[in-house]
UniProtKB/TrEMBL annotation:
<keyword id="KW-0689">Ribosomal protein</keyword>
<dbReference type="GO" id="GO:0003723">
    <property type="term" value="F:RNA binding"/>
</dbReference>
<keyword id="KW-0687">Ribonucleoprotein</keyword>
<dbReference type="InterPro" id="IPR011331">
    <property type="entry name" value="Ribosomal_eL37/eL43"/>
</dbReference>
<dbReference type="GO" id="GO:0003735">
    <property type="term" value="F:structural constituent of ribosome"/>
</dbReference>
<protein>
    <submittedName>
        <fullName>60S ribosomal protein L37-1</fullName>
    </submittedName>
</protein>
<dbReference type="GO" id="GO:0022625">
    <property type="term" value="C:cytosolic large ribosomal subunit"/>
</dbReference>
<dbReference type="GO" id="GO:0006412">
    <property type="term" value="P:translation"/>
</dbReference>
Length: 80
């Protein structure tokens, strides 16, 4: 809990640890620091793992997520 409990609070009352309104941290330093864990975010962000699903999304996006259709045949004469 942190701070020692005063003797007068031990008898007949529930001692509750209070959280500050800023950041819900008991120390009061909740949201004071911004971007303090940039390296941790970089390690865990999207793209650091296998991305079995997300790896194919850009290619499927180009075709508007079309599935189950067959590609139109290419004209050989136009290619030469």
């Amino acid at each position: 809990m942190g701070a020692p409990v005063p003797a007068k609070l031990l008898h007949g009352q529930v001692w509750q640890a209070h959280a500050h309104a800023v950041g819900n941290q008991p120390s009061g330093d909740g949201m004071r620091y911004d971007n303090w864990s940039v390296k941790a975010i970089r390690r865990k962000t999207t793209g650091t793992g296998r991305m079995r699903y997300m790896r194919h999304v850009p290619r499927r996006f180009k075709s508007n997520f079309r599935e189950g259709t067959e590609a139109a045949p290419r004209n050989r004469a136009a290619a030469n």
